[in-house]
Specification:
The chain is mainly α. 40% of the residues lie in helices and 6% in strands. The protein contains 6 helices and 4 strands. The strands form 2 sheets. Strands 1-4 form a two-stranded antiparallel ribbon. It has a two-stranded antiparallel sheet with strand order 2-3.
Length: 172
């Protein structure tokens, strides 16, 4: 998705038949399981399922064009690699043009929020005891930006590599 593009629920012509938009978004949501590079664009476009407009459909077509050009991309874990899973989160401030609501992304499923509260207290205690420490990560290197922002091409592809998204058609 292009950087600095903001969609609105009131701009552009309403789609006469939104069913194709609904089907495309549903399929794209399924693809985000193995294609985290689609997550932000699909998340933004799925917000307009109720009354999709032509600019939203045009953006879906751009996502499909991107998919056509990257058929070998996906998240791959080598059998020989020592996998260390890390979680990142980020949020924007009043990013929605229509409602001024914020978007927050956390790629980890939390079953019950009570456990998160307990974990938060444990982390706070460990920080105070200097068992763990927080590290500053420069804005350009924030992996969570893949899920919360439209990024420039160079930064987008750099972060995809950090996430383990590879192109199987590129010689190694």
């Amino acid at each position: 998705m292009a950087q600095n593009v903001k969609f609105s629920s009131t701009e552009g012509e309403l789609l006469a038949d939104p069913s194709s938009y609904h089907r495309l978004i549903g399929r794209l949501i399924y693809l985000t399981i193995s294609r985290p590079d689609l997550a932000y664009a699909v998340q933004v476009l799925s917000q307009y399922m109720d009354k999709p407009r032509q600019p939203h459909l045009d953006a879906v077509h751009r996502v499909l064009k991107y998919l056509k050009g990257t058929p070998g991309h996906g998240t791959f874990f080598s059998v020989t690699s020592d996998i260390h899973l890390k979680a990142f989160c980020d949020s924007d401030c009043a990013g929605c043009v229509d409602t001024r609501k914020s978007v927050t992304a956390s790629p980890v499923f939390h079953e019950r929020t009570k456990h998160i509260e307990i974990d938060c207290h444990i982390v706070r205690e460990k920080l105070q005891a200097n068992v763990i420490k927080t590290l500053h990560v420069a804005s350009y290197n924030q992996l969570s930006d893949l899920f919360t922002k439209a990024l420039g091409c160079v930064q987008f592809h750099s972060l995809l590599g950090e996430m383990g998204v590879l192109d199987i058609h590129t010689p190694s």
